[in-house]
Every structure is written in structure tokens, then in C-alpha cells.
Task: structure prediction
Amino acid sequence: MSKELIRLRDLCMAYDDELVLDHLNLYINDKEFLTLLGPSGCGKSTTLRIIGGFTAPLSGDVLFDGVRINDVPPYKRQINTVFQKYALFPHLNVFENVAFGLRMQRRPDPADPKRKTKLPEEEIRERVLEMLEAVSLKGFENRRTDALSGGQQQRVAIARALVNRPKVLLLDEPLGALDLKLRKDMQIELKRIQQQVGITFIYVTHDQEEALTMSDTIVVMDKGSIQQIGTPEDIYNEPKNAFVADFIGESNIIDGVMVRDKLVQMYGRQFPCLDGGFAENEPVDVVIRPEDIDIVPVEQGQLTGTVTNVTFKGMQYDIIVDFRGFKWLIQTTDHSPVGARIGIKIDPDGIHVMKKSRYSGLYGDYSSFSDEYDELDAAEPEEGGNET
Result:
């Protein structure tokens, strides 16, 4: 069983009387890769700064290994940070950049415990070379940092943070300055480094793909509050509300009614699903991922709609389909031309039902992707297959 390392208890923070963190509670386990995910202004970077000791909360506690550390300065915490701007020293080579923190350290002199002494040069060299190998920069010791690629510079910053052997590494959107291909490569590299060094990583990003790729646990935040905590699989497949469903991946979010357990109604048609625990005829939000929709001939469809936009994405087509004025996104390898009438089928495990929330009605309509938006007459007869 994982051991709890950090606990944030009832944290509140405000800037200029605007609440940034609203009674946030969270625990983080030892050796866990946890990602704080959310849009700009949601409070994720503020949370990271409070953990690192760079910002003090208005109220609440930060516990490290069960000990309250609110008043402990950053340099005395067993925590290091890597920011988006790596802040490498341009006049020092790779070796000296990584060794910088070690050269600042002092330890009691074995011959005289009252006296502090520098780390031995042999130990510094051993630890720096060990860390450069861990971040795949062996042989780069004498290279100038301004002669390195963006990904290599980032790994130097990570090595410099890890060489001091912290228990926690904080990473505040460190991939933001990299191009797309390098960013994808570094996602895999960061996860490998975390598993190799075996410490806790707390990562901040607004990029849901980064969070899904690297994390053991994802914390989805909005407006200073936690919306959901879970594994990448849980967050993607079982979102708690419309905000999470929309922020993590693409989603069609439709108004529905839970007729009874395992049966939901949309557009006047009833669809088998796997969800239960709702009241009979309770209004709900229904999430259908674009990849879970099958295109079929009109006569076989549970619903029938008109294709309004097609975008080729290499491995798939993104197809926008109009169902009575609400635009759905379908991701498929089958091409359907604009203007085509198509039917769709959705298996029960492709339908996820959520409670209504303050986010209901805000997401899920892909009208802005279409070339034209033709509002269908509300009196038009219902379309689709037979009721189930």
C-alpha cells in the first residue's frame, strides 16, 4: 500500500480579493506521479507554489510526512522545483550547472562536528555523472547549455533539481516551450526518469494529453476547486461532470433523462447503458465519446443526422453530424461526405451518464466546427430507429 507523503488540508488562497483556492483538500503518495490539470487561473500553479514554500496560504495546512511545514522556507524543504523557464547558468557547462547545488551544500566535519565543510569533489563528480546518466545526458558534461536543444536543456534542469536527492520534484508546465514532437518525446522521458529515481513528481499542466500519458493520478481543477481525482482511465471513462468530460478529451454531452437503471432517453429515443443509481426520470447529462459512435446505414441507425463538416486527421476523420440542431463529433476511419444522411449506433458501454451540475449545458455542441449552422425546425418529427 502506498504511503502518504504530502497532505494539503483546507487550503485557501486569494489574490486581490479574488479567491484562487477554495478550501482545497488533497493527499499525495510517496513515489506517485500526480498531475494537477486544469485551465489557466484554476489554481494549479498556486497549489504547486504553496507545496514548494514559495507562497503562503491564507489558511489551511501543508503536511509533509505528517509534519506541518507552512513556516518552513523552500530551501529547507525536501522539495525541488523545475519551472517552464529552466534558468540555466549560461556561463557554466552542463556539469557545473548540475553540480551548482551540491557545491552550495555544507555538512558537519567528521573531525569537528561544530564546523561545516563542503562536499568532497569526488562525491560531487560521482553524483553529477550518475544523474546525467539517469536523464540520458552522459557525455554532455563539458557542453555549453546554449548549445543544447530545448529537450536537453530541460533534462539538465531536471538533473540539477534531482542531484540534491529531494523526496519530491515539482514541475510547473516544463514542456510548454517545446515543439510538439519534442514535447511528446519528453512526456515518455519524464515518466521514465520518475520511475528510475523513484520519487514523487507533482506536475502542473493544462494539456490533457500530457496528463493522460504520464500520470498515476490526475487532479482536475477549476476555479480553485477539485472537480475529480482518479487514474487516467477513470478520469477519461468515468467523468464526474460536464467540465471534466469536456476538458479530458473530446466529448458529446447531451441532455438526457434516466428512465430507469441501465436505460437512458435522448431525443425521445431510449438507449441501453450500464449506469444506475439515478432516480426514475431524473434529468441527466449523457457523455458519448466520438470514438464510441458507429456510422451505419440510415435504416439501421438509432439516430439519423446530416454530415455538416469533415476533417481528415491522418489516422481518422473528424466528422460533425447535425442531430436536430445539436452538432456531434464522430471520429471514424470511414469517410462520409458533407451533406450525407447517416445513421449511428452506440453500444451500451459507450454511453456514460452523469448527474446534472453547474456545468450542464455549457459543453459538447460542435456547432463552431461546421461550415453552416442550420437550426432545424423544432416541430420536425423525431428521427431514428425504434425505441428500445
